[in-house]
Amino acid sequence: MKRLSIIFFLIIFGGLINAQELTINQTYYPLVDTNRIWSTLYQTDDTSSPYFVQKTEFVKFSIDTLIRDKFYKKVFKTNDSLMIDWKENGFIREDSLKKVYYLSDKNSNEILIYDFNITINDTIKLPQFDAQLVVDSINYIEIGEHQRKQIYLSSSNGSEVWIEGIGSLFGVLNSGLGIPCGGSYHLLCFTENNNLLYQNNEFNTCYLFTDITEEIINTKIKVFPNPVEDFLIIEIDLHYGKYYYLNFYNVFGTIIKSIVIHKGYNRLYINDLKLQTGLYFYNIYDVDKTLYSGKIMIK
């Protein structure tokens, strides 16, 4: 009787495990969505070179548009740290087979940039960078309290990783890139509905400044603590004008809150932000230029 009970328990326990695995495998997170923003860093290899370049780029998808009887989302890009000045940069769509296609303009032909239905040992050809990738392995990673498929691929140009619903760790539009000569691409952050779901631990930021002038100015202003729980402190040692202005933006570039800072306030306490939990960007500026910009997390 005891032996039968053990066998029965093992059957039930094994069934629960299989059911759990099946549930994970059946849950699919689409890539193309209008509530998401990706930030990607490009930098040249030699950081000590006077020709060293690094650039952060944000990508988002927006309204539907009909092109040759197919619905696409518009693709927008910006290098603006405040994500205000967006420029249209192609079109993207995802079909029921978990394949994602990109269209550079309305007169060009669409190209395959993802296939999230591939399995181990499958080969996928991506015309964008003339890449032929082989699936080496697949596992699952927890993103925002949910398990998502993580696909490891390799080619003659190197290897890369795709995460379901996020895309390539080279950047959402850089699948199949491999190892570019003289530089590298890194996905910095992925946000959904103003919530930070992925951040690259190597950089620990969603935007890297490239303007030397900004860096010099930044040393004269301090904004802390970060994350913000009860209050925010701003220390200013600048005397550019009569007033300073502080704007907070959500991840879509919309101004959520504006504050006027009077000259002479070297240390300002703000305890009434009234912002919902999530990631926000901000800038401090006078009449004609931005003096400081950055990001904060609201707990």
DSSP helical segment count:
2
Largest β sheet strand count, sense and barrel closure: 8 strands, antiparallel
What is the N-to-C order of secondary-structure elements (H for helix, E for strand)?
A: HEEEEEEEEEEEEEHEEEEEEE
The tally of domains stands at 2
Low-pLDDT segments, ≥5 res: 4-24, 211-219
The level of helicity is: 10-25%
Distance between the amino and carboxyl termini: 55 Å
Q: Numbering strands along the chain, what is their spatial order in the largest sheet?
A: 6-5-4-3-2-1-12-13
Which word captures the global form?
A: elongated
Provide the structure class: mainly beta
Strand content: over 45%
Rg calc: 23 Å
Mean of residue pLDDT values: 81
The count of β-strands is: 20
What does this entry look like structurally?
It is a single chain. Helices cover 11% and strands 48% of the residues. By secondary structure, the protein is mainly beta. The protein folds into 2 domains: 30-199, no CATH class; 212-298, Immunoglobulin-like, CATH 2.60.40. β12 (183-192) and β13 form a beta hairpin. The termini are far apart.
